[in-house]
Amino acid sequence: MRRALFSLALLAYPRAFRRRFGAEMYDDFHRRSRGGGDTIRTLGTLAINGFAERWSAIVRWTWFSNATPHLYQPQGRHHMSFDTLRADVRHTLRIAIKTPVFTALTILALALGIGATTAIFAVVNGVLLRALPYRDDARLVNVWSFNTIENRPRNPLSPANFLDFQKMNTTLDGLEGYFAIVTPAQLRADSGTEVAFSLFVTSNLFNMLGRSAAIGRTFAAGEEAPVVVLSDGYWRRRFGADPAIVGKPVMLNGRPVQVVGVMPRDFVFPYPGMLGPSGFTRVTSIDMWLPIAFSGPVAVANRMLTGSGEVVRSAHWWGAIGRVKQGVSVPQVDADMKRIAAQLEQAYPATNKGWSATVVPSIDQSVGTIRPALMILLAGIAFVLLMASVNVANLLLARSVAREKELATRVALGAGRSRIARQLLTESMLLSIVAGLAGLFVMWWTLTALIAFAPADIPRIHEVTIDWRVLLAASLTTVLTGLLVGVLPAMSSATINPQASLQDASRGSVGSGRRRRARAALVIAEVALAVAITTGAVLLLRSFLSVTNVNPGFDPNGVLTFQMNLPPQLTNADDRLAFYRDFFARMEALPGVVSVGGTTRVPLGSTSVSTSLQRESHPLPAAELPEVQFRRAMHNYFQAMGIPIRRGRGFDSNDISTAPPVAIINDTMASKLFPNQDPIGQHIRIGSTPSGPWTTIVGVVGDVRHGGLEEVPLPEMYITYLQGPPVSPFIVMRTAGDPQRLAEPVRAEMRLIDKNVPLYDMRTMSTLRSDAISTRRFVLLIVGAFGVLALGLAAIGVYGVMSLIVSERTREVGVRLALGAKPSQLLRMIVGQAAALGAIGVAIGWLVALPIGLLLQGQLYGIRSIDPATFVSVPAILLLISALAAVVPAFKAMRIDPVEALRLE
Amino acid sequence: MDRFRPESFLPLTPVAFEILLALADGERHGYSILQEVEHRSGGTVSLHAGTLYRALARLLESELIEELSEAPDPRNDDERRRYYRLTTRGIAVAKSEVARLEGQLAAARSRRLLKGARA
What we know:
The structure holds two protein chains of two kinds. By secondary structure, chain A is of the alpha+beta class. Chain A folds into four domains: 2-74, no CATH class; 150-353, no CATH class; 371-548 and 774-903, no CATH class; 566-757, no CATH class. Helix content of chain A is 51%, strand content 15%. Chain A is built from 29 helices and 23 strands. In chain A, a hairpin with a 4-residue loop joins strand 1 (140-147) and strand 2. The longest helix of chain A is centred in the middle third of the chain and has 37 residues, at 417-453. Chain B is mostly helical. Chain B has a three-stranded antiparallel β-sheet. The A-B interface holds A 17, 20-21, 23-29, 31-32, 42, 45-46, 48-50, 52-53, 68-72 and B 1, 29-31, 34, 48-54, 56-58, 60-63, 78, 80-82.
């Protein structure tokens, strides 16, 4: 086995070198490897040296053959083969110059194909393949709580459970925690207060990730002091990249906090996928990191401790990331964490019953959601490239037919068939290498455009660059394309019969049967590929249309939304309510405002939060309580959003804190939790504590698509802000005209109310709605472009081949016409022939499209993967295209003058 | 190549120089050169077989080393083993390379790049 591998690596060396040193080298290798060491690496180096030797030998033999003495003489075949290559290259260049348009078009087509393919690969590489910006990132895993009762495997941890996982695990070299929510922090500046998005992390997190600060330092182990580390982006944006900021204090949430460091530009933590489903804001890019500890004032302020001073075990908002020990696998870590979770379940049944654990590699956690979409793009572009190659192969084949006499002459003069085939392959390789170089520019442009138009929620899109892997992919694509394009013409030319071809001089070339079959195969392949790719594109298009037609449950037109943070000095409910009363009154007074409301979770634009719920009519043990989505409605929220009130009433100004607590629920909750009952007047209690007042349901509103347009609405309840005012609500304003025009008046009014209340994340609900499908739109646009390209390429391909066939059959057509064939019969014959080829292609394409539909399943919405309409219409369209593409050549055939055609004889 | 000028081979590649050094105290076969280089450098220089034999080929071509027609010790004779030794040209080139390196070392010392300045 090792001997075989060695011999394989040795093949890289020139034969003479192998003969002279091979035995010695094997002996050395044999002795060496007994001492251990990395065999593969050794053999790799061996092979690389071999190629280097080969290359330098080629260079010396060819260009400096007299200048240096040679240890081993170039032997016949090697010498010949390189001479041949030179001759072939020269010949190719001569032909290329003689047919500049053909050459340019071919190179252009291939360059576009190779460039676009490589650009898509660059995106896949940057997003999916490249290492995360942490040391030895392959060993990082995210640890989650697994809510087995509701089957939610990636639930945040509670801080107490996190500590236990950290202490009890035996498979990790360190587990660090962070808040799985982004906290809008208020930064005091001269111009007023602004919001900075901060993340609490355990002090050792940066060390565990293996990253240090670009300027200053990260947190010391166990650091609890009021310090902050800034992100590179925020440091540039907010502090003008001033290095002197390190060591200075900033006013954060009303107290001085010292800046201790700035992270490097490439550092990202967390990726959006590492955050939990709940949170205060939809923003996921972090401006600053703050240290969190399990005791002290910061822990208290962040509700980390219970009333009796213990670390909280019941609330889940922690993320955890750990480093797997050397030699331990992810499933082993997963088993370890599940074991700990089971122990905790035993020890703390009240809080931990039903909670297991999940371990996910951090790369999957970061980009797992986008992987299918990118894979679709990669597969799509591969199909397009394949089609472009087939088209070029077609052109080359046609040309090799035209050159049949040249080739036949060469064969007659003694050129071997393999020699001819090699000449043709050299041609196609050369074309594709030039195209590959031109493709680098195409790639660069395409990549720039892709990054610019990519939706913001594609993770890591800004980490996409051109690296060695992309260049390697580009060269591999180039070589493969060259082979693909050249193989058919080379193979078909190998059957040239010089006698027949040369005798036939006056007749022009009638392609041999084999070549005609090759050409038919190309047409069929092209139609099949086009059917497959267009089917995929149409499936995505139909899904996109279904998603667009989804009723979000509210009316997004004319609604402006933004988030704001209440001043920290408003610590009690009465002060906050007073603030809101004034705020809503003044906002409603702005010209153009129809109604104003607010909520803690804006649909399509924020995270979600859920709570367990008790029903008076249906008591259950704590662990079996249903989970419902939970939000607050402020002021005229339902009117402002256009959410219909189905039954009962909305909140009104009498539902104050001293009045009985009330709630409004959505249709889904009404039908799921109160089937066959009138939900109005039912009593519910939020949470699992079996004491406290009951809340009365006073109304039912329509379902709203909160999580996304494609997500089925969950049971959801609203309580009024008057019975618990929030601190960082989303405000929604229904306006009479363009909501964007109110942006400035709203900001101005807010500055008048209190310049220290920051407004941020301001956008229209229509934007939110269209952002909710941006990734889908992005994928659709690209795949749609592929589909259009595929149709075009198929049409061109069929047209090209049919024209060729017609021009080859000019004489035959002339004879037929002379013998009295009607032109319409000719039309039928030629179009019929094209349609027949098309039909075979369509049938094969149909079979290819079936699995494609299944692969796309995850991306489809509202249609089945084998959508009858798509699977009938696409093949029909391609059949039509292949018939139509033959019409022009057919008309040409009908206009053939029999006299002229026969005179050619 | 009428007149032999050792300077025309300078500077030697590090690998070539290592080989010449290894052969300076007598003939060796390829594997023994590898071992010698590794041993002398205390394991810090590790020659790869591919690199070694390419360098050997170049040295043979330039006739700085030559191949022995038979093994020096018949008991060790192994048909796969070929022994190499320095030619007079090889010795001359190695010497001029040493002189060149000494010149560089002296320059380094005088500029205090190297400890133990004696210049």
